[in-house]
Known about the structure:
By secondary structure, the chain is of the alpha/beta class.
Amino acid sequence: MERQQISRIAHSAHPVAAPLSDGSVRRLLDQAVGDGTGRVLDLGCGEAPWLLRALAAHPRLRAVGVDTDAEALTLAQRAAETLGVAQRLGLHHQDAREFGLPEPFDVVLCVGATHAFGGLAPTLAAVARHLAPGGVALVGEGYWEREPDPAALAGLGGADPAEFADLPTTVARVVAEGWTPVQGHISSLREWDDYEWSWTGSLARWALDHPDHPDSAQAAAVAAEHRAGWLGGYRGTLGFVTLLLRRSA
């Protein structure tokens, strides 16, 4: 089973592919899109849950999503048609680093996908290239709640401690790149737990429901390994912050 397929199954029962509750997603979107008359871009959109929610709530909004997962984009298109918002959504099967349109966007999102650009700083640079003057960015990034121990790093697949910083340093780095936070959300432990139970549970449920599928055993093993790495490793160590940003004067 490909990594993208595992991710699609694992995220199938959660509002977005990040540790944010339904209410947190709604509040951040409402703050980002304002009166709902502009254009929104999601870099690394996956199945485009952020864009679909925004379009359904704001009938004058237009949106564009970019991702390398063709199947996720197909699912996003189907969902948009079901919601009746497909005419206001453009989807691009492309590396987000190479994406470009001549007209800038009023809102640019990149939540939980900074790895696609090689980290936080290059993500912010990419966002800036697409953002209209006076526009806002919504960027979600991990950070260390506390110094990661070997168990936490192992639970994250052998992560490098330098991959993230603590929260004050993370925000300071954003500011140093020429951005001003105008709002933000720090995911709670409950949001993290809901996200991780959903991630592992969805994959384990799929394996139980498809016992004869050739990938069933792999899906069950991945779910068990992920659950062990979370509960016995990085739970309470890895945090997640979502920042609403504007370019600094």
